[in-house]
UniProtKB/TrEMBL annotation:
<feature type="transmembrane region" description="Helical">
    <location>
        <begin position="315"/>
        <end position="333"/>
    </location>
</feature>
<feature type="transmembrane region" description="Helical">
    <location>
        <begin position="124"/>
        <end position="143"/>
    </location>
</feature>
<dbReference type="InterPro" id="IPR005829">
    <property type="entry name" value="Sugar_transporter_CS"/>
</dbReference>
<keyword id="KW-0812">Transmembrane</keyword>
<feature type="transmembrane region" description="Helical">
    <location>
        <begin position="440"/>
        <end position="460"/>
    </location>
</feature>
<feature type="transmembrane region" description="Helical">
    <location>
        <begin position="345"/>
        <end position="363"/>
    </location>
</feature>
<feature type="transmembrane region" description="Helical">
    <location>
        <begin position="375"/>
        <end position="398"/>
    </location>
</feature>
<dbReference type="InterPro" id="IPR036259">
    <property type="entry name" value="MFS_trans_sf"/>
</dbReference>
<dbReference type="InterPro" id="IPR020846">
    <property type="entry name" value="MFS_dom"/>
</dbReference>
<feature type="transmembrane region" description="Helical">
    <location>
        <begin position="190"/>
        <end position="213"/>
    </location>
</feature>
<protein>
    <recommendedName>
        <fullName>Major facilitator superfamily (MFS) profile domain-containing protein</fullName>
    </recommendedName>
</protein>
<keyword id="KW-0472">Membrane</keyword>
<dbReference type="InterPro" id="IPR005828">
    <property type="entry name" value="MFS_sugar_transport-like"/>
</dbReference>
<keyword id="KW-1133">Transmembrane helix</keyword>
<feature type="domain" description="Major facilitator superfamily (MFS) profile">
    <location>
        <begin position="18"/>
        <end position="464"/>
    </location>
</feature>
<dbReference type="InterPro" id="IPR050360">
    <property type="entry name" value="MFS_Sugar_Transporters"/>
</dbReference>
<feature type="transmembrane region" description="Helical">
    <location>
        <begin position="418"/>
        <end position="434"/>
    </location>
</feature>
Length: 506
């Protein structure tokens, strides 16, 4: 095998910028989720349902309205995810980035104008509408960023780049946790309006960054704009490749490998041939992403701590949990391209199961000692670490790389929409579950994490290091976890995936 140039030589400043700059959209999602958790935990919130409890004379949000406030926003995300696929196919990634930024700004304005300056003056319906609109942009971001990244990044570090989505989500959550802590004692509208208004920064940055990124060469090929695809690729490749004709060769190689899959096809093709298995894998992992208890960490951590005897340190613990989750993503971004998707997911699901079962076992005890209370907090944080190690982010990677090119956007749209439906279910149900079975929710979510482990072992083939086009060959044969792949069997890595000088024979 001739390897006159290293794979890393294909990484240019423009490629790195294009891969990471638009992840500020994911900061918006993490920030909104985390900041709203703080608003829910503040009994004097200006957007409360105006229910006054006689004993305390304070405004409070009951379980029904808490569920509505958190879950109805996912209607917007469902719409955004579902329409993201067709929007990207027709208008391209860059136009979708512009559009979602405008939608986000409109939603934030609706949120901030939903209340006056007096306690109990909040128009809760308007605030919910604002959250729904903001979450339309969140859904568009979730699909658009992952697909764009997967189509421009070399195969050898595609996992690293796509998993960075979870890193930026966690950054947003940490920022929200800090501001929640700062304004946790606020008695007027300044606190929540400041926290909400900061969201304006993210769509503005998206608009600015979008002017500088190139259009995806693969998307241009789907529109038969071959010359423009070459020009776009030249912006992502090193200068030497723009002068020696490598970019033209790469575009020709991709088009030849895709053959009949160059152009986008209908929704029906999601369930035709090998696409059925690929679509089902994407859908299942987006289900597990929501069904293993992530809402515990993302939205209800402060509420959970406060309702289980940790009120004094609830905001501090939530911030610590967010920081630990952030640290867990960093090694995960590396190991997903070294250990692979299968091993990373199985480790994550196993640890999630372990911590959730321990959480329930200790938490259900009536009189807990100081050590046992500390253990509950520690296990809760360890669950966050384990979830962010794989179960949180790898579903985005699977959704971006497993589908066939002809239906990639549609598959990701269906998968993320399905994900949103379960996010709605878990966000709506969890307040009632916490009130009724308390720590017993760990038995429920832990069992689902165990199912995720089993599904990964029996049904998920390994795709690390494969170009997007070569993944088609992975799914052309049945998968068996008991049949080891032959390490001597190689495949031709196409230039677009960052290995232009590798020529391997089968």
């Amino acid at each position: 095998m001739d390897s006159s140039r290293s794979a890393w030589s294909m990484v240019t400043p423009m490629l790195l910028f294009s891969c990471f700059c638009l992840l500020v959209g994911d900061i918006l999602f993490g920030y909104d989720t985390g900041s709203f958790g703080g608003i829910l935990a503040n009994p004097i919130s200006i957007i409360s349902c105006q229910t006054i409890y006689a004993e305390t004379r304070e405004y409070s949000i009951d379980s029904l309205h808490t569920s509505l406030l958190t879950s109805l926003a996912f209607i917007g995300k469902f719409v955004g995810c579902l329409f993201a696929g067709p929007a990207i196919e027709n208008y391209g990634h860059r136009m979708v980035f512009f559009g979602l930024s405008i939608i986000s700004v409109i939603g934030i304005i609706i949120e901030m104008t939903s209340a006056g300056s007096k306690s109990g003056s909040g128009r809760i319906v308007q605030f919910i509408v604002g959250r729904i609109v903001v979450y339309i942009s969140v859904g568009l971001v979730e699909v658009n960023v992952t697909i764009y990244q997967s189509e421009i990044v070399p195969a050898f570090f595609r996992g690293f780049v796509v998993l960075s989505l979870q890193l930026f989500l966690t950054v947003g959550s940490i920022l929200a946790s800090v501001l929640n802590k700062v304004f946790s004692t606020s008695t007027d509208s300044v606190g929540w309006k400041t926290i909400t208004g900061i969201q304006f920064v993210f769509p503005v940055l998206i608009v600015v960054f979008t002017f500088f990124i190139p259009t995806s060469p693969r998307w241009l090929l789907s529109k038969d704009r071959n010359e423009e695809a070459v020009i776009s690729l030249r912006r992502l490749r090193p200068k030497v490749d723009t002068t020696n004709g490598n970019c033209e060769a790469e575009i020709s190689s991709i088009r030849e490998s895709l053959q009949q899959d160059v152009h986008k096809t209908s929704w029906f093709d999601l369930i035709r041939g090998t696409n059925l298995r690929r679509t089902m894998i994407v859908i299942v992992y987006y289900f597990f992403q929501q069904a293993t208890g992530q809402v515990f960490v993302s939205t209800y951590s402060v509420v959970f701590y406060k309702t289980n005897g940790y009120a004094e340190d609830a905001f501090t613990y939530s911030l610590m949990t967010s920081c630990l989750g952030f640290l867990a993503v960093l090694p995960a971004m590396y190991t997903v391209d070294r250990l692979g998707r299968r091993s990373s997911l199985m480790i994550s699901f196993f640890l999630q199961t372990l911590w959730l079962f321990i959480l329930s076992g200790i938490g259900d005890k009536g009189d807990k000692s100081s050590a046992e209370k500390n253990a509950v907090v520690a296990v809760f944080m360890l669950f966050s670490v384990s979830y962010n190690m794989g179960g949180a982010s790898i579903p985005y990677l699977i959704g971006a790389e497993v589908p066939n090119a002809a239906v990639r956007e549609k598959t990701q749209a269906i998968g993320t929409s399905w994900n949103v439906l379960w996010a709605f279910v878990t966000n709506f149900a969890l307040p009632y579950m916490i009130n009724s079975i308390h720590f017993g929710v760990g038995w429920v979510f832990g069992s689902l994490a165990l199912l995720g482990l089993l599904f990964t072992f029996f049904f998920l083939p390994e795709t690390k290091g494969r170009s997007l086009e070569d993944i088609d060959a992975v799914f052309s044969v049945p998968f068996s976890p008991f049949r080891s792949s032959n390490p001597e069997v190689a495949w031709r890595c196409r230039p677009i995936e960052g290995k232009p000088h590798f020529h391997e024979s089968i």
